[in-house]
Design a protein that fits this description.
Blueprint: E1 4-6, E2 12-17, E3 30-34, H1 46-54, H2 56-68, H3 72-84, E4 94-103, E5 106-112, E6 117-120, E7 125-128, E8 133-140, E9 146-159, E10 162-172, E11 176-179, H4 188-191, E12 200-203, H5 204-214, E13 220-221, E14 234-239, E15 242-248, E16 252-256, E17 261-264
Parallel strand pairs: 8-13
Antiparallel strand pairs: 1-2, 2-3, 4-5, 4-10, 5-6, 6-7, 8-9, 9-10, 11-12, 14-15, 15-16, 16-17
Amino acid sequence: LSNVQQGGNKNEIALEFNKEEEIEDGGVCEIKLYIPEKENKKKEKPEEKEENGENKEEKEKEEEDEKMKKTKGELLKEEIMKIAGIGSVSGAIAHLEEFQCVIPRGKFEIFFLKNSFKMNGQSHNYQVQPKNISKIFLVPKAEGNYSLLILKLKSPLTQGNVSYKFIIFQIKAENEISIDLQIPEDDETLNNIEDFQTPLKGKTIDIIAKLFHYIMDKNIIIPPDSFTFSKGPFVKCSYKANDGVLYFLEKSILFVHKPVLEIEHESIKEVDLARIQVSS
């Protein structure tokens, strides 16, 4: 249970396991359990219908109470999450509420711990280890006053049959926050950083960058000033049928966002430039 990454919901529970490294042959990645609910519905006899009509309000209230009760699946999920420590955020150094995530889509609470960061959502929880993050990009979004924080993972997050090789957070560029840090007294490294003292105040994007840099020990990759076009450090393009944006970085080219692709400069054999006849 110490390796379980997240639970499921309702009657189905998905136990996903932290993958320390890519599994080549064999090995269990996920176990799914289905817990059916016992049905106790009785058919009403015709003569009972009239009598039951008088107690209609009571029955409706009972049905409402029944709906509010947790299913056996949800109770088992809670028990597994409790034992496995999923969703547990004791010892969190920093906590961010309702953070907008583009991939996987939804709003998440983010907790930065010493050896991981957790994303707790309405139906899914994820835990990401620092060694599972290969790169972090910070780029301006093409539309609107937003920035995108993109995490490239060595081992993808999974949600059912869908896997996420990248995590994308959307952050309003001008937003400012103030957060209290809970740095352990025995952590000499974090306590001795002048730029990292509680409360941490400033632009949200700068605070996030500091949290990943100091707690997760990761550098943030941003587009260099030399690659700037009329609207920013990006050009619009398409990959197959999907429209997106291309960011030119020092060591790679990044395509956002369906699917997110990173093309390293050293892997490019040649570039073709051609004029095309189009009506628009």
